[in-house]
# Entry
Amino acid sequence: MKSIVILISGRGSNMEAIVRACQAEAWGASIAAVIANRPTASGLDFARQAGITALAIDHKNYSSREEFDAALMVEIDRFNPDLLVLAGFMRILTPAFVNHYAGRLLNIHPSLLPAFPGVHTHQQALDAGVTRHGATVHFVTEELDHGPIVIQASVPVYPGDNEDTLAARVLVQEHQIYPRAIRWFIEDRLKIVGDQVLVTPPEIQMIHTESK
Ligand code: GRF
# Structure
């Protein structure tokens, strides 16, 4: 049985989708812990109700990014994770942290990377006037919002969209592709080759949807 630890910062809807898929599809894995960097993260309540160890390590209690990441690593490693999942975890991670979990650290970013790294991705997409937008699950490397791409989903951008309507459309797809990527990882089907991720047997790694 593989062990997954999930890091969140807020509502944790991606974490919830992952927990539900893990249970419904009986993955050969368990969610060992959900850890937030904010004690008020509402996703912690869902995790507790689902019987998962849920705890907060408040980044405000640490004077540097290095100290916080070191404390976080100690906590995470108590659960011996095969996979560490960033699910709306709104912290920039130190190279020491990223390297410690290299090859077993996934993130979801709400844009079609390499377009629109950083924050306010939906507004960035609207400002750029793109006709399609989406989300990306990728392995984490030292460079922010880069790293080998596991799967992407694209959605249309409609005239009249605003940040909220676009975010909601993308989020529906996030909840589809993140559990799928994690399941592939758990099934040992992912291999990083250079900047690419190969899935064996092959799967479609770009989903185009026309959702409203
Ligand atoms: C998601 O859009 C995720 O891609 C981004 O922040 C949001 C977190 O949502 N990084 P949730 O906490 O998973 O509901």
Q: What stands out?
A: The chain has one domain: 2-208. The mean pLDDT is 97. Residues 2-208 form a domain with the Rossmann fold fold (CATH 3.40.50.170).
